[in-house]
Amino acid sequence: MLLILKSLYLYAISLWAGALFFFTVIGAPLAFKVLKKEDAGRYTGAVFPKYFGIGYVFGVLALISFYLLTRENMTLISSINIAILLIMNLLNFINGLLIVPKAGILKAEFYRSNDRSYYDKFLKLHAVSMALNGITVILGLMVIGITSLYLTF
After folding, report:
1. What is the pLDDT of residues 65-97, one digit of tens each?
2. How far is Cα of residue 53 from the mean position of the Cα atoms in its chain?
C-alpha cells in the first residue's frame, strides 16, 4: 500500500506541475504567437476546462496521498508541503471555477455588444487569472523541490 501511495503522490504532483509549467510557458504563449489573437483565445478557452480539470484530479490526489503518507510522522517540512498543496488546490479551484468562467462571459459579452467596458473587465480578470496560475506553477515547482530534497516517506 505504501508503494501505491508513494507512486500516486509522485505521479500526481509531477504530472500536475508539469502540465501547469508546459501550458503556462510553452502552450499558451505559442498559441498567441502562431495563431491570430481570436483563434488563440478560442484555443486556450477550449483547453482551459481540461487544464483545470487535470488540476482538480491531480491536485486532490497529490494532497490526499501525501497526507496519508505523512500523517503519522508529520514534520515541519511535511506540514509546509501540505500547506502548499492546499494553497495550490485552492488557487486552482478558484481560477477554474470562478475567475476563468467569469472572464469568458465578459469576453463573449464584449464580442456580442462591442462594448469596451466588458473587454476592460475581462482584461482585469485575465490578469488575476494569470497571476494565480503563475503562483500555482511556482508553488508546484516548490513542492517538487521539497519532495526531492527533504521528504523521506
Report:
1. 999 999 999 999 999 999 999 999 999 999 999
2. 9
Question: 494569470: which residue's cell?
Answer: 130
Handedness of CA 67, 70, 74, 76 (dihedral sign): negative
pTM of the model: 0.92
Answer for the pair 62, 13: CB distance below 8 angstroms, yes or no: yes
Estimate to the nearest angstrom the gap between the alpha carbon of 92 and the chain centroid.
Answer: 5
Structural domain boundaries in the chain: 2-150
What's the CA gap between 90 and 1, in Å, rounded? Answer: 28
Query: Distance (Å, rounded) from C-alpha 116 to C-alpha 43?
Result: 22
